Amino acid sequence: MIERIDLELCDGCNLCVESCPTDVLKMMEVGNSWGEQTWKATIAYPNDCHNCRLCAIDCHVDAITVTHGITLPQPLFAYTKEVLNEDVTAKV
Ligand code: SF4
Ligand code: SF4
Predict the structure, then answer these.
(1) For the chain, which terminus, N or C, has the lower number of CB atoms within 10 Å?
(2) CATH value at residue 18
(3) What mean pLDDT do residues 65-86 have?
(4) Which domain holds residue 23?
(5) pTM of the model
(6) Whether residue 59 has its Cβ less than 6 Å from ligand 1
């Protein structure tokens, strides 16, 4: 799952937003300490991330951290747990 975007490194190029197939990322206008407005990438819908790493690969300043954890949609996760429990019970 996408973990973080280093906003110090992000220069707002928008490449990661364009490369994400599930629209996890959005651009957000933020102010800096000099009162200037600038654009940064933000993680808008983290639960839609499926770990493809395209955003991290395309980011030219290595601002994006994606972990290798596998995320399953909740209904599938519940089903998988149920099947595993049945298997365990069957072996006992
Ligand atoms: S690709 Fe990297 S530098 Fe460009 S907007 Fe995304 S995080 Fe920022
Ligand atoms: S790892 Fe893939 S799905 Fe997740 S935010 Fe990046 S491009 Fe989108």
Answers:
(1) C
(2) 3.30.70.20
(3) 66
(4) 2-91
(5) 0.75
(6) yes
Nearest CA to ligand 1 atom 8: 10
79: left (phi over 0), alpha (psi -120 to 50) or beta: alpha
- Closest residue by CA, ligand 2 atom 4: 49
Tell me how far apart the alpha carbons of residues 73 and 50 are, in angstroms, rounded to a whole number. Answer: 10
pLDDT for 49 equals 95
How far is it, in rounded angstroms, from Cα 53 to Cα 67?
Answer: 9
Ligand 1 and 15: CB distance under 6 A: yes
Inter-residue contact 67 to 49 (CB < 8 Å) = no
The number of distinct structural domains making up the chain is: 1
Q: Residue 9's CB: how many other CB atoms inside 10 A?
A: 13
> How far away, in angstroms, is 89 Cα from ligand 2 center?
37
Residue whose Cα lies nearest atom 4 of ligand 1: it is 13
